[in-house]
Specification:
Blueprint (H helix, E strand, L loop, with lengths): L2 H25 L2 H10 L4 E2 L5 E6 L5 E6 L4 E3 L2 E13 L5 H13 L4 E6 L5 E10 L4 H23 L5
Antiparallel strand pairs: 1-2, 2-3, 3-5, 4-5, 5-7, 6-7
Length: 164
Amino acid sequence: MKPGVLFIILVLGLVASGSAAAQDTTKGDPRVARQLDRLGLKYKLTDSGNYSLSYDLKGGRSQTVYIMGTTEKYNDTEIRELWSRAGTYDTLPPADVMQTLLEESGTEKIGFWSIEKSDAGGYIVYFSVKVPVYVRDTDLSSLLELTANVADQKEQELFNSDDE
């Protein structure tokens, strides 16, 4: 094969794979939709290609949990993140709050606390669980509920609100 033809094929392949990746982030990962459909869970697809699920919790509270539409890889293991926001601070959270979150991250059965600077300003405090994409349906359902409950408890404790 001529080098020029090989170059054109390579460029077309890169363009096609880039387009496919762009579609995945805006349309979501169909594997997630199939799994949520099998579980009979209602969800919405966000503009960024993530899946949003609302949970009604005890005491009339509610919590939103997100499933990332994109994945990361470690060797041959493909990982997906589940997360739920506890709240947002206008400035960096106080040191005692960060210490508590760090300590609790070490004692949670699964999952951990994260703090991320928001594009809109402030700092988001959220609970995150990372799972392999091949997680069983029943395990995914349990982990989504866990994520909602842990984040909601912290939302109530730190922010005394029910915004999420």
